[in-house]
Each structure stands twice: as C-alpha cells, then as structure tokens.
Amino acid sequence: MAGRNLAKQAIIVLFSLVLAQAKAGELLRLEQSAEAMGSTYSIAVYGTDQAAMETAVEQAFDEVRRLDGLLSNYLPDSEWSEVNHFAAERPVKVPQDLFDLLSACVEYSRQSEGAFDITVGPLMHVWGFYKGTGHMPKPEEVERARAIVGWRNIELDPAARTVKFRKKGVEIDPGGIGKGYAVDRMVEVLRANGIKIGLVSASGSSIYAMGAPPNEKGWPVEIKDPRDTSKTVEEVRLKDESMSTSGSYEKFFEADGKIYSHIMDPRTGYPAKGTLSVSAIAPRTIDSEAWTKPLFVNGREWAAKHKPNGIRAYFCEDKPNQPCVWLQ
Q1: What angle do CA 15, 132, 140 make, to 5 degrees?
Q2: d(CA 157, CA 238)
Q3: pTM value surpassing 0.85
Q4: Is the pLDDT of residue 52 over 90?
Q5: Within this chain, do residues 194 and 111 fall inside the same structural domain, yes or no?
Q6: CA 52, 53, 59: angle at the middle one, nearest 5?
Q7: What is the pLDDT of residue 153?
Q8: Which helix (H) or strand (E) segment is 157 a member of?
Q9: CA gyration radius for the chain?
Q10: Is the same domain home to 224 and 312?
Q11: How far apart are CA 84 and CA 137, in angstroms?
C-alpha cells in the first residue's frame, strides 16, 4: 500500500521462483512478487521454458521500476515530481508515455464529470492521506485546497509535448491511476516475451489476467466483503481482462463517530459517501482502475446511465441490508 517503502528505487524480490513439474510436458508455474511504486506487485505465469519465463518476469519488474522513477510523486527527481514543481511556472516537456498518460487522465475526468481528477493532490494533503492515514481538516483548509483542484487547470500541448498548470499550487496525484497503468505495461512486457498465461496484480486491487490457468476457464479472483474484509462477497473468473477495486476500507479514519475514506470527491473537497466498494472489470487495467473512482464517487444510479460500454461494475453500497449487485 502507499506509504510503505516509498523512497525505494530498486525492486526487492519478496518471493522466489515456484516451479512444479509433475511429469514431462506439464506446464511450469513461476511466481514472484516485488515492491515498487508504494505497492506490492505480484506475477504468476505458466510456460514450458524456465529460462524464458524467468527473463520475462525479470523484465516486467524492470519496467515497473522504470515507471517508479517516472510516475512517483514521492521521488523528487521523477518526471512526475518535476511537473508538480515547475508546471505552474512554465511548460514542462515530458516523455511521450507520461504525456499520453496525462492525456488519458484528462479524458477520464471529462467523461466522469470531474469525479476522477488527478489534480486532487492538494486535497489529499489537507486530509492527511498523503503519506498518512488521514485526519479531519478545517473547513477553510478544504476550501482553499478545493479552489486549486480541477482537471481544467492542466494544459497539454501535443506538438511540444509539454504540460502547464493554469494556477499555482496545482498538484497531480498518480494514486488513482498509477497501479493500473503499471500493470498494463508489465503485461505488455510479458506478452512481448512470449508469455500467454499469467496474472499480474498490484496489491490485489488492480489485476490483469492473461489467458487461463491449466484446466480452468479463467483466473479465480475474489472480491472482499467491504463490511468484513476477512470474507469474500463474490468470486469472478478473469480471462484476458482486468479488475480493479476501490473501497472505503482501504484507507480511512474515524472522527465524531463518522468514517472518512481516502476516496475523494474532487468537486466538493470531501470524501465520497454512499458507497463501500466498487469493483470494475474492463479490457485494460488503466480503465478498470480509473473508473472505479467515479463509479464510487457518483454512485450506482449515475453509473447505470454514464458507465462506458465494455465495463462491468460490482457495487457494494452503504445501505443497511443492501446486497452487493452487478451493473453490466
């Protein structure tokens, strides 16, 4: 989770190779996990060539390490941090992949009516969710932060490949998109190395399934019960698709008997209410992760009208005796 080993530039491999071959010709399975971008990234792959599998997984972790240096808002010398430091003063030229990611974020904001917004950084600071578990701010602090939050404060110049902020104090936060983007890039690396069956997970909240394990229709993935995370409320089978989950149980604090989650409504400046968790299934992990936020913030009724085609969502609402439901 965010806040753990955030300054690390090198990936630490936590779990070593797991290989099983009961008889000749049976698929090998390899599993490894590593820390990067404030999250634990796990890979499980199947194949027949042990050396090729090891190389593919190693290169996938190399990619997430590269992205850590590109997208981190904790590392002062990352390209993301450079944008935050200087884009209010002058246009900042960025690598093509970062420019494309920021362009996608602006489009998510437009489609979600501002419920997804990477300029939420000032609010995350005020509410104490940046490098912390949160605390209750003063109303005037919230209002000052909210006044500089807004995706329309981002100016993108495709010809020059630059980013400019329209206001001082604007700060972009990769927390709502970075893991999904990283998972997709890791999947691309695995595929380029010939891997056809695999599962890539970022802290269990953003997952992509490649193909299906032997004798299975898909990769089994559990959705936690937001009221009791030791229990499973739903199990899905994923095949060549992604699932991301956002829940109020991930990071929160309690004040005056009320629970305040880290999932912010950028338009009000306050944590979203009415939803406990949303799991979104989409062809790409960047889409599933990005859309869990506006679906969570705007609620199921809004999602029924505005959810993009090709995305399925599983809603657990904050209502007594209300079962979790699928929105196809």
Answers
A1: 155
A2: 37
A3: yes
A4: yes
A5: no
A6: 90
A7: 98
A8: strand 154-157
A9: 20
A10: yes
A11: 23
- Cβ pair 11, 37 in contact under 8 A: no
Residue 208 lies in a domain: no
| Residues 6 or more apart in contact with residue 215 via CB below 8 angstroms | none
**Residue 306, pLDDT above cutoff 60:** yes
Two tokens, residue 103: 């362009």
Within a 13 Å sphere around the CA of 196, how many CA atoms are in the beta-carbon half? Answer: 5
Continuous H helices in the chain: 50-71, 79-86, 96-111, 121-126, 139-146, 178-192, 285-306
User: Half-sphere exposure of residue 327, counting CA atoms within 13 Å on the CB side?
Assistant: 24
Residue 58's identity, in one-letter code, is E
Q: Could you tell me if 300 and 315 are in contact, meaning their C-beta atoms sit under 8 angstroms apart? A: yes
**Distance between CA 247 and CA 277 in Å, rounded?**
4
Token code pair at residue 242 = 């992604």
pLDDT attached to residue 194: 98
**15 lies in the same domain as 135:** no
List pLDDT tens digits, range 213-235: 999 999 999 999 999 999 999 99
Is 279 within 8 Å of 292 (Cβ atoms)? yes
The pLDDT assigned to 16 comes to 39
- Please check whether residues 109 and 220 belong to one and the same domain: no
Q: What is the pLDDT of residues 253-295, one digit of tens each?
A: 999 889 999 999 999 999 999 999 999 999 999 999 999 999 9
Report pLDDT digits (tens) over 292-302: 999 999 999 99
At residue 25, the pLDDT reads 61
In whole angstroms, how far apart are CA 70 and each of 87, 95, 151?
16, 9, 20
99 and 160 in a common domain: yes
